[in-house]
Design goal:
Blueprint: H1 3-14, H2 32-84, H3 97-106, E1 114-122, E2 125-132, H4 146-154, E3 159-162, E4 169-176, E5 185-191, H5 194-242, H6 259-305, H7 310-339, E6 349-352, H8 353-364, E7 371-376, E8 381-384, H9 386-402, E9 409-417, E10 420-427, H10 461-471, E11 475-480, E12 486-493
Helix pairs in contact: 2-5, 5-6, 6-7, 8-9, 9-10
Amino acid sequence: MTTAPARTARTTEQGTAPGQATTDVPRRRISARVHILLWLLLVMAVALASVATTTRSILLRDTDHRINRLLAQETGEFTNFEERGVDPGTGRPFTDPSRLLRVFLERQYADPDEELIGLVGQVGAEPTQIIQQREIPADLPLHKDTDARRRIFDSPDSTGILHRPSGEIRWAKVAVARYGGEPEAAFVVAFHPGRELRRVEEVFRILLAISGVALLMTTGIAWGVAGRILKPVRLVRTAAAQLTEQDLTRRIPVHGRDDVAALAETFNAMLDRLERAFAAQREFVDDAGHELRTPITIVRGHLELMGDDPVEREETVRLVTDELDRMSRIVEDLLLLAKAERPDFVTPEPVQLAELTADVYVKARTLGERDWRLAEVADQEAGLDPQRITQAMVQLAQNAVQHTMPGQTIRIGSRAHGSRVELYVADSGCGVQPQDSEVIFERFRRGTARRGSGGSGAGLGLSIVRAIAEAHGGRVGLHGTEGGGATFVLVLDREEART
């Protein structure tokens, strides 16, 4: 069958060629420094080219206006002389066009690129020239160009542009009226704009040359400035590439107060959070492993030593079950602490503090035979998660039970101070040692001395209380109780619970 080879051939035609590697070749990346430089050069090139082109257009326009004014001025002077002038020989108005042109031209002085010519028509012949013109820097002056002179003389227009291989001529003429049978005549002003146009083009080329030099200088300066500005960004990239779970100590030096410096500060703050998170994670794993290893060892030891005696088996089962329950509580507490990092850990809602405090008091009374008292209640409404707050307060009550003796007083209450609310549990035990006031809120940490009858907790209860308080945008505080004991306080803001 030929199906498979045909399919293979099509694949070869549409995909990779035989023998060609199928892995994608990584495209070469263009750095941000080059991107900035290219965009800057593009903008600069467009701007400089626009300036040079605009300057050239303005100079050409000014040249046109100046030439037009000159042509209008010369023709206006001749028209005025024709209307008002008199022949110096007779003292009367001119009747001979040749005499009129000759007298007028004798009194004029032409500009360097200007020709003033008088033309007198001859029947069937070339018009006669009456020239008032010195030599001008033109390849072929009008008074030497018979064909151009004839075209201007015969043109019905009073002004125009004559394009010649030897150079452009801009001209204007005034036709002289006929006097009897005298031949027709004309006064012609011709301007050769070649030098003016070359001067404009020279200025344009100079601007382009200056623009080129400016681009080169801009390239060098921009390369250095972009490198200086982007140096923190490169440091961020290098630091990010070198970060590992084992080394989070690298930091980026911050210079200045611009956006790049703010980026470096933000990156350093992120590294600080990562370092603390990884350190807490390692410590958490170590402590969790240590806490779980103890009940596992106890369970294994009792199971290995368990005999056939029914009483011994019953005692072993009881001990193993107790240790398994303790392990279960540790796992549940660990899962709860893990959830505390999630944004939906608390769901605040309007809560009446008086009702919440009373509910906590009722639930706490079942924890032990103590002198339970509802000290005070705040008649206020706050945005809290009632289940999490109840959980934290019950945990504080359980902690108070563990560190007091039967019959001792435990007070539960709430109060409001402006925008803050406080819920507290105060016991009458022996209090907390000063060196333990911060330690006891850490995971798997207990005080250096027992405050009462003791307990078998894993050291996660107060960590859970702190996590709940911080999730509400608050904190948990500790101070001594008047007359002896410890008071744990949840200090919360009414409106700043995390949503």
